[in-house]
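Example record for the data management plan.
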Amino acid sequence: VCFYLNQFRSNPQENQPCLRVQSTVVNNFFMAVQNSICCKLYIEKLFVSNNHSHAINISNPHILSIKECVITNPGKSCINIRFSKEIFFQESRYVRIERNELCKGSYGISIFGENITPQSCTINITENRICQNTKDGIGMKNLNISKVTIEKNQIVDNGGNGLFLNHVLDTTNFLQVNLKENKILESRLYGLAISEVAVFSDKDEIMRNHKGGVLLTGQEKVPSEQEIEFFKSYPLRNIFSTTKINNNKDSGFQIIGNLRGPLIFNSCEFYENMNGLFIKQEPLNSTAYDEVINKTAKKLILEDQIFGDVVLEKCVLFQNRLSGIHIKSINTKLYLRETTISENRNYAMFIESQQDKEKIVFKESDKGKVREHVSGHIGGNWGILYETNTASCKGNKCTIF
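Corresponding structural encoding:
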């Protein structure tokens, strides 16, 4: 290891090792930087290549600042950070990863924890170029952390997901993970994959990903009564605002499983995907749920429908290769408010089960004007919910072919 920081004292807050590195080249080491526990690191304009393990491998940092570095071709992650449950800091900590180029590792950035003890640590990942890694561009999982911001990154051509967030929570302040103005493209799996996370996405662009644009997975099994009561008070809200999701080989946005809070799209665009939006949730009256011992929990779900309505407001879904929206099965409501669905090849909205048509709710003022917002069939193999007006002329107005 080129730089190794070791903490000998029993109290990790005393006499922390500190490293400052600037304008340095590190080649062909096992690792460029590693610590045992706790540290302060300020790394700027570091060039690292051909490491045999993680290039920068950090455990429970107090302060970690990595700026304007180039890390290429490590044996594992370009930057790997671990958070353990045993660490108790009185003062707040931070991690800043800014304006770096992170290429050809397993992960560009991997940040993993144990998801038990809340960590008073903010994480900012800003203006990085993360490309050609064999796994995820950024992978974060099992974190109970105070604030995460991922902003203005270019995440391109990674072998797994562009950005993978799994069980990233904040049980202290209940803040969302903030994503803003990221460009995520050409991932071999999904551009963005999220599970058990509350996300606020603003002006992100997710395009040309091989598996799909966004995958949001929820619960497949029936939760306990305690979980139901907790997420009633502290729902996992996912909000996408002015997000563009286009040209993905599979669906633009896939919802798999039951959500633990609302999913809201505001002024988003879904176009030139397989389907714009795809929803598949295990029906609550299926035999899988009937076999569950906790009948009270099932009753609460059926009565309250608390696991997350889906809302599309002022969105546009157009020119998708199959349907604008494909509903395989849905448990909660799908609300459409001033949302335009047009020019999709098959259906505007394909609903596999006829009973699910009751779950589609148009805004009151839109009910009589569905055809002003929706062009194409709404229905499935069972029939059509709204007939399409194929007349080329109406009154003094004509469609010009």
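Summary line stored alongside the record: The mean pLDDT is 88.
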